[in-house]
Amino acid sequence: MSDVFLSYAREDFASAEILAAELERDGLTVWWDRRLLGGEYFHKAIEEQIDAARCVVVLWSRNSIKSEWVINEAGAGLDRDILVPARIDDAKIPLAFRARQTVDWLDDDSDALIALVGGIRRVLDMRPVVPPPGIGSESSRTWRDRVRAWRSFFRRTISRPIQVSLLLLLAGLLLANLLLPRFFLMPAARLTVATVPDTVGMVPGTHQHVAYRFNEAGGVGARLESQDVRFLLLDGTELKAERGVRIFGGSIALAPGGSATLDDNVYLPPDIADVVMLRGMREFQLETTYRGGDDNGHLVHVRAVLRIGVMTSPLPR
After folding, report:
1. Residues whose CB falls within 8 Å of the CB of residue 131, separated by 6 or more in sequence, listed in order
2. Are 133 and 146 in contact (CB under 8 A)?
3. Tens digits of per-residue pLDDT, 67-106?
4. Which helix (H) or strand (E) holds 79?
5. Cα(277)–Cα(281) distance, rounded to whole angstroms?
6. What is the rounded distance in angstroms from the CA atom of residue 120 to the CA atom of residue 131?
């Protein structure tokens, strides 16, 4: 299942090896009898490779014109109109092949080698790659045949840098899927919270009851276990912050699509009230961010805002 089938006489092994190496450096797959596996029936193996190849290259020489094997292999390429001949010495080319344009590659001439590779490329470009018959059919004898056929197909159609990039991408996706399977396959919980009431008036040093009502809208259960608390002026200036504070009672559990309420007693520190009033303001915000995780392994958070008005005397009862 190669791009090029290389036909040559055994005595011309050195020239065949140079050409095969040059073609493989150019990204092509080359089959020559050096690739015969031990135990293979070489008649059958050679016939299969010629039938599957997209181009047949023959090296004519004083040795190969006497070889019945080489002449038969070249004839098979000529019959399919995929033959690219090259002459490596002053041999007289057999009559049946003289009408075919032949590259004179003498004394390992580098320019002739470039011309030969170009001729092979032109033949390959005129014949689009199609999957070998064994791919995806019952004619493949074993799973190894299928793997070998696909590998040959991709090697012919995809350049080496793209192959490497695809393999790295696949490896990265597999690794990420192993490490973070739920992030790729499962949705995350969607949380909202409402503060009731959302605005209160407080005297410094006192407490105020507030309810935080949580809802889950994504159909995924979640648990909130810590909170970040910030005191902010209305222009966003941060006055004080406490992060990673444990939620009173341990945690807030939300069933998929469910709700929960947290009752809290908000405290107004006198030092915060003093700063607010020194700035000439009477109101500020208490921002609480609740953090935790959902049943699919995602980290989740939701933010509640309470607006507080600073009072200098208690509200009348």
Report:
1. 149, 153
2. no
3. 999 999 999 999 999 999 999 999 999 999 998 889 999 8
4. helix 68-79
5. 5
6. 20
Nearest to 202 by CA among 287, 288, 286: 286
Please give the DSSP secondary-structure letter assigned to residue 32.
-
The structure tokens 């080496």 sit at: 160
Q: Which residues, listed in sequence order, are joined to residue 207 by a DSSP beta bridge?
A: 267
Cβ atoms within 10 Å of 72's Cβ, excluding its own: 13
Calpha distance 85→217 (Å, rounded): 72
Residue 39: predicted pLDDT: 41
What is the distance of C-alpha 226 from the center of its chain? 36
Question: How many residues would you count in the chain?
Answer: 317
- Contacts with 301 (C-beta within 8 Å, 6 or more apart), sequence order: 191, 289, 290, 291, 292
**Of 265, 197, 259, which Cα lies nearest the Cα of 224?**
259
- Distance separating alpha carbons of residues 106 and 291, to the nearest angstrom: 77
Question: So what's the pLDDT on residue 114?
Answer: 87
- Whole-structure pTM value: 0.44
- Round to whole Å and give the CA distance between 205 and 59: 100
Q: Which residues pair with 201 in a beta bridge?
A: 309
